[in-house]
Each structure stands twice: as structure tokens, then as C-alpha cells.
UniProtKB/TrEMBL annotation, chains A, B:
<keyword id="KW-0560">Oxidoreductase</keyword>
<dbReference type="GO" id="GO:0016628">
    <property type="term" value="F:oxidoreductase activity, acting on the CH-CH group of donors, NAD or NADP as acceptor"/>
</dbReference>
<protein>
    <submittedName>
        <fullName>NADP-dependent oxidoreductase</fullName>
    </submittedName>
</protein>
<dbReference type="InterPro" id="IPR011032">
    <property type="entry name" value="GroES-like_sf"/>
</dbReference>
<dbReference type="InterPro" id="IPR041694">
    <property type="entry name" value="ADH_N_2"/>
</dbReference>
<dbReference type="Pfam" id="PF16884">
    <property type="entry name" value="ADH_N_2"/>
</dbReference>
<dbReference type="InterPro" id="IPR020843">
    <property type="entry name" value="ER"/>
</dbReference>
<dbReference type="InterPro" id="IPR013149">
    <property type="entry name" value="ADH-like_C"/>
</dbReference>
<feature type="domain" description="Enoyl reductase (ER)">
    <location>
        <begin position="13"/>
        <end position="339"/>
    </location>
</feature>
<dbReference type="Pfam" id="PF00107">
    <property type="entry name" value="ADH_zinc_N"/>
</dbReference>
<dbReference type="InterPro" id="IPR036291">
    <property type="entry name" value="NAD(P)-bd_dom_sf"/>
</dbReference>
<dbReference type="InterPro" id="IPR045010">
    <property type="entry name" value="MDR_fam"/>
</dbReference>
Length: 352, 352
């Protein structure tokens, strides 16, 4: 028997544990070409919120059907039984059937989201769960956003919002590694300390401590060239104000809007895109899977060299996935939010 | 003696003739390196509104000082007296000291706005005033917007808003010439007829005749790939809804917002840029003066071949420049709005 977390109601506003149910299901034997995986870690991502609604935004992955297992959530685990070439019991793999403890996965079948096709992982590079963050979808989003969507150029001053989050903390560090002046923002003084002391950013601020344009001006008196956006709303508006000529915005998400009951107001100063010649580009990491080998090579090396830190917020126990998501969306977590499926406690973990 | 139109008050909302005054000034003799020009045509552009305020938007040309001549407005004229090499009486030239009947211009001095540096025009290619529209800044804006900012690709379906306007009518025609399916929108049924019958667009609609998303869906049932934006506001929002994956927006202006007393609301659906991987690029034609020779070559040929039509709304008399601007901003005019400085009547003119 196995357990799965299934949505039973679409949240209104904040995600609540009662919107989900953990159900017991029979785990069937793998057929030819399939592998049975015991999941050990599963990913918790803000963007899941976009699928927890009647209709997901056009162009995005479809809404999670109520009462069904959630497909397209990255997870890592250990192969228990294999009837597929190239996979053997004991292999560490990733796939996209998360939020459950056992999964039967078809080898070679393209996963929803691209990154999660059943793949053997090299645990000599990093512990398995890092493949859900820096070496997985989050790393790809940060990498594709900075180096492709934003087209980072030498000397660019970069602002990363939600910089203590799973993607933001990677984008901020990658920009630092490439020699940029990097400003980070987050929603608590503790996170700001993390940005300055742990990640070594050049400046950081708590966006709750004043008016965003003022805080940003203080952190970047001469303006910015690139804004890596994970927040939207007032953050994007402040960025448009601070961007210099030919500046660029890479938007990977708009967490400030995910739970909005009313359609949000967009930035009121978009005309600055015209006068300053700005480029605003939305993107999804999953649209850049061709960059995965390149990203993995770079990020793997940066981790080995101790230049890129993978901070994790670990929540133990499969049944805690919904509150983990709620906490992430509330801004409680630092770094990558992970559920350790067999664990029983809640702690933070820094892999340096 | 000469006459100049000078702003004496910044308009609140709509531009009024009483915000300007025509003053008589003494025309001085040109010094060494200067040329005296009798202006014959002067340009009327929506974007002038951005400079008729206390502070122009950051990154844009500075506000027009009250009580001073307006600098940086394209004009064509005839050299009356020259003390500069390369210019002789009778030459047709353009420069950027418009909204006056005589101007003393320094040869070689970079004009505010780039395009308007004193230049001799080849009137065998087109009549002088066409250099204020299709062969000038408007042509450059349309050309740079489509082929650079929007990165037009084979097969793209293109929506041009304000498509009966100076820039829009050129962008729409250029996209047609390059073989695209082109949808145009405008603010009157008469303009829609012009778009369909004169410019031969594939579809066109009057945005006042229904809800924009519906009108756009009817005109482009399978969506659009490129939106050439001159309007902003609800038009941009509708475009984000209709754009297909990897779609692009080139914004050259946001005429719907120029006279706004409150900061406008931006598009509430910017998150679609993320899910659909959209690129939104603001740009100014004047930031692309390096494309001027290339644009002039193409557009000159298209005019000669009868493939690109230059519709003009001509207002006669220098003193009529302010009402001409007010009319343009109200949506009264089709094609390029021009003031014929020595004229006395008001008529429309189509150069095919």
C-alpha cells in the first residue's frame, strides 16, 4: 500500500491543509518498461498554486483535477523494482510523480514539465534532494532567467526579488559568481541577514520596511540593469522605475498574485519601458530544458567549489506537504522547500 | 520677422489651443556653419504630449519649457541662405526646429531626437512632407518596432493598434508587404474601412464597438504572435490574452495614457507573459537611427512601387498646430498629421 496527497478542494486565498487529503492506494507491480520508485524527497513549489484552481492560466500546465493524484511535481527516490532498461534497484532517480510515497513510472515517457522524465541521478555530484532545487527545475529557472531571458551582460547591476527563495537564492548567487553587483530583497529581517551574510550579496532589504522605490533607491542609488522577478505587483513597478536604459526584466513568477481573488493591477508605469527601451520577458524554466546539461555542469562545479550554497527548508512527512506549500506561499521558508517523505521532524538544513 | 508656436501652460487632460501662443520673433542672420531655413511642413506627433508637462517621463526627451520655442520637432523646409558647406539656397532639408516658420540651424549639430540633424532630402524619392512620416521618424518607429523590437518572424500573425495612425498605418503595411496576416484596430468605422479598403489589411475592427478581447478573438480566432502597441491600457491587456506562445509585443507609445490625470493601471494579466513565454519590449524609433538608411531604402522602394501608401491629414497654417495636436490625440486624424505652414485650408491628401 502507498500514500498519495490529493487536492479535494481548490483553495480560496491561502492554501489550507483541509484542501487536501492523504489517501491510501494499492501500489501495482511495474509492467514492462516501467520502474517502481520509493520516493524519498518531493518538491514544494510556489507555482503549484497556479494549478490549484478550476482553470490554470493559459499556457501553463493544466489544473490539478480534484480527487486525483497530482502529476508534474518533481520528486527523487530510489528504484525498488525495475522492468526498464538502464534502471536497477538502488538507483537514485528523479521523476514527476511527487506528493506520494511510491510511484510506478514509465521509462522514457516525457514528463509533464519536461525536466521530470525518469532520469538516473549522479549522487556523487550532490545529495539527491539537490536535484529538486539547484540541480533541478529551480536551478534551470534561475540559469535560464539570468543568462537567456534577461541576457545578463558584463557590468549589469541585478536586483533579485524573493531572493531568499528557492529560485531567487540561486539567481542571486549565480549573478554574484559571474561578478555582478547584486541586490536582493525578501520579506523578513532574518532573510535579509541570510542574503548579506550567507549569500554575500552587495545589498539587501526587507520590502516590508518601507516604500519599495525608496528601499530600492537606497540599495541601488544609480539604478539597476536587470530585475529578476518572482513577485510581480509592486515589485515589478518599482523595478521599472529603477531600471536604466536598455534594462531587462526576466519574470519567472508573480507570487504576489497567485492567491489574489481579484485580477491584480499591473504596473502603472509601463510607459517607462518605452522611454527607457526596456525589455520584459516572461519565461518558464521548463521551456528551456535544452539548457539542463549546461546548467548542471556549471552549477555542479559551483557547488563542488563551495561557491554556490543550497539552503533547504525541510518539512518531514508526506502528509505535511500541504502545510509546507502554505508556509512557502506565506513567506515562511528560506531556500528550497522540500518534503522528506519518510521523515518525522521539521528542521532547516544548509548544504555548503 | 518670423512666427513661433510656444507653450504657455501645460495642458490638464486634453490639449487646448489656449495652452499655446504664436509669437513674432526677429529672424537673425545665419552665422558661419549655419543655415536659414523657411519651414514648409512641420510634424504633429502624439508623443509631443509627453513633453507638455512639468516633467517628462524618465528616459524621454525633456519637457518643453513654457514660453520657449519647442525644440526637437521634425520639420522640413527650404534653405533660404546658407553659410554651411553642403547646403545651398533652394535645397530641401529636414531639421528638428519645427512649429515655427523660419529657423536658423547649425549644420552637423546632433538634433535632439537623433533623426532631425540638418539633412538634405532627395525629393525625387517622395515629396518633402513624406520625410516627416513614412521616410522619417514614423517610418523608423514602424520599421524598428516590427523588425527589431518585435523580431518579426515568418508566419507571425500581427495585430497593430491605432492602425490608421501615422506609425500604425506604416507598421501594418510593412507587415503586409512582408507577407503577414495583419489585423488592425482603430477608433471609428471610417478608419476601419480605410484599413480594409485602402491598406488591404486582413481584418480590422473599431475598438469602440464591443469588448476588446471579443473583437480581437473574432479578428484573430487562432490568436496573434506579435502586437505592435501604440495605445497601452486595455489594448495591451487584450493582446497579452490573445498572444500565442513565444509571442512578442513592441510598444512604441501608450496614447491612451498620455493625458491621464491618475497613474494608469497596467495590464492585470501580465502573468500570461510567464506562462506563455512572452517578450514585451518598449522602444523609441530615435534609439534606432542606425536603421535609418536601411529603412529609407526599403520604404522608398515600397512607395515608388505603389506598395506603401502615405495617407496624410493636412492642417493648414502654423497657428493651427495646437488644434492639430489636440485633434490627433482625440483620434480625429487618419495617417500622418502635418501642418502646412503657409497653407490656409484644411484637407486630407492621399499620396499613393
Amino acid at each position: 500500500m502507498g500514500r498519495e496527497v490529493r487536492p479535494i478542494a481548490y483553495p480560496r486565498g491561502e492554501v489550507r491543509a483541509s484542501d487536501f487529503r492523504v489517501v491510501e492506494v494499492e501500489v501495482r507491480q511495474p509492467r514492462a518498461g516501467e520502474v517502481l520508485v520509493r520516493n524519498t524527497w518531493t518538491s514544494v513549489d510556489a507555482a503549484l498554486r497556479l494549478r490549484l484552481r478550476q482553470t490554470a492560466p493559459p499556457g501553463y500546465f493544466p489544473a490539478f483535477p480534484l480527487g486525483e493524484p497530482m502529476d508534474g511535481i518533481m520528486t527523487v527516490g530510489e528504484v525498488v523494482e525495475s522492468r526498464a532498461d538502464g534502471f536497477a534497484p538502488g538507483d537514485t532517480v528523479w521523476h514527476a510523480a511527487g506528493w506520494r510515497d511510491y510511484a510506478v513510472v514509465e521509462a522514457g515517457k516525457q514528463a509533464l514539465g519536461g525536466v521530470g522524465t525518469l532520469t538516473k541521478l549522479d549522487v556523487r555530484v550532490a545529495p539527491p534532494q539537490v536535484y529538486l532545487g539547484a540541480l533541478g527545475g529551480n536551478g534551470l529557472t534561475a540559469y535560464a532567467g539570468l543568462f537567456h531571458a534577461a541576457g545578463l551582460r558584463d557590468g549589469d547591476v541585478v536586483w533579485v526579488s524573493a531572493a531568499a527563495g528557492a529560485v531567487g537564492s540561486l539567481a542571486a548567487q549565480m549573478a554574484k559568481i559571474r561578478g555582478h553587483r547584486v541586490i536582493g530583497s525578501a520579506g523578513s529581517d532574518e532573510k535579509v541577514r541570510y542574503l548579506l551574510e550567507e549569500l554575500g550579496l552587495d545589498a539587501a532589504f526587507n520590502y516590508k520596511r518601507g516604500a519599495l522605490p525608496d528601499l530600492l533607491r537606497e540599495a541601488a542609488p544609480d539604478g539597476i540593469d536587470v530585475y529578476f522577478d518572482n513577485v510581480g505587483g509592486d515589485h515589478l513597478e518599482a523595478a521599472l522605475g529603477a531600471l536604466r536604459g536598455s534594462g531587462r526584466v526576466a519574470i519567472c513568477g508573480m507570487i504576489s498574485e497567485y492567491a489574489a481573488k481579484e485580477p491584480p493591477h499591473g504596473p502603472g508605469n509601463l510607459m517607462l519601458a518605452v522611454t527607457k527601451g526596456l525589455t520584459i520577458r516572461g519565461f518558464r524554466g521548463s521551456a528551456h530544458t535544452h539548457l539542463l546539461p549546461e546548467m548542471t555542469r556549471h552549477v555542479g562545479a559551483w557547488i563542488r567549489e563551495g561557491r554556490l550554497r543550497c539552503h533547504e527548508t525541510i518539512i518531514d512527512g508526506l502528509s505535511q506537504a500541504p502545510p509546507a506549500l502554505a508556509g512557502l506561499l506565506r513567506g515562511d521558508n528560506t531556500g528550497k522547500t522540500l518534503v522528506r517523505i519518510d521523515g518525522f521532524t521539521h528542521r532547516e538544513n544548509a548544504i555548503d
